[in-house]
Amino acid sequence: MMTGMGSAALVLLGAYLALFFWGSAINAREAHRPVWLFRHARGGDRLAALGFRAAFALALLGSLAWRLMPSMGDLDPLRSLQNSMWIGLAGLFMASLGAMLAFAAQMSMAASWRIGVAEGATGALVTGGLFGFSRNPVFVGQLMLLLGTALAVPSIPTIFGVLLFAGSALVQVRSEERELRRTLGPAYDTYYQSVPRWIGIRERSLQ
User: Fold this and answer.
1) Nearest-angstrom CA–CA distance, 204 and 207
2) What pTM, to 2 d.p., does this model score?
3) How far is CA 23 from CA 106, 111, 131, in A?
């Protein structure tokens, strides 16, 4: 049976997804162009796009599916961990922090916000705020959100969702880096060399 921490984590995940779509609509209005670029994805980028969708679906619906199929859920060796209050509390805290980080980073991108990669659609380079500690704070926050959800609702689907997201993010980030370097040139090279891909401290000034 799902604990209160698990239920709260799933509500938080659902709320984040609602804010994600709402924020994307706001960013699209500021950019005066669509921000969803997944329809242009090919090859590995298309697989990454599918991976992102599947990761969030597994996190949000995976454990709920076990409740509808108890005979399958009983075979999940991780469900017994749902009885640990401390694991659930740590997961809920991590999920909350990740959701705030991801949404704050998304909104700070404003007109530069994009979902996916497409030639000539990178937007202006954002280097301030959270982007001074990570070149991809949205992905870092989303990974924390999914990992926290997996701790609060331990199950094979939620853990697999985390792994699927991590692999998809790595593919997506590498494609974005190639396009940003091609489009923005030296400005992006300087940023690339001074700020880590995931998280860390700025090594030197971008000036």
Assistant:
1) 9
2) 0.86
3) 7, 11, 18
